[in-house]
Amino acid sequence: MITNKFGEIVYNIEDVVDLIMSEENISGITVDHTVDRPDGVEFVNATKNNITVNEYDCANQQEWLMPAEYQDLDIAKHIIECCNTPEELQRVGHELLLYQERDLFNLLKYLKYLVDIMKDNNIIWGVGRGSSVASYVLYLLGVHRIDSMYYDLSPEEFLR
Q1: Euclidean distance between CA atoms 133 and 145, whole angstroms
Q2: Mean pLDDT, to the nearest integer, of 61-82?
């Protein structure tokens, strides 16, 4: 944290994480929003470029910061290899087509990376909530712990 020319204490992102972890009240603090990015990475500014939300999302998905091993991962093959029965394989095939139609494979790669990071660092996350629990693919990736096949939840509930 630093003090700016106006005498305000300005926190960086690491300071904010420390405050949250120590259960401090962070309402009303000033945060430095500048981010050190790797060379060549540019985030899209939707207001400057006057683009649609979909164009903005697609452009930024291409710039997600994750290790090359996850960027190069054949996510469909990985998920298919997690299947144990023909019924699971059929469900996963159906869902993967839905994800592919929506150009969401980069999202699945990032979620795999995120879950692996949380597991490696013993970070606890929720059991699952909302419509995401209808996705068996997300269950196999470990994003949530609700077996949507067991509860006969339709993937279309999540991927509308």
Answers
A1: 8
A2: 89
Residue in this structure with the two tokens 């990985």, named with its chain if needed: 78
Range of the domain at 22: 2-31
Total domains in the chain come to 2
Whether residue 14 lies inside any domain: the answer is yes
Cα angle, residue 66 at apex, residues 160 and 148 outer, rounded to 5°: 35
What is the number of other CB atoms lying within 10 angstroms of the CB of residue 29? Answer: 15
Q: Give dist(CA 154, CA 114) in Å, integer.
A: 25
Give the span between the Cα atoms of 80 and 132, in whole angstroms: 19
Its pTM surpasses 0.85:
no
Residue 27 or 66, more confident: 66
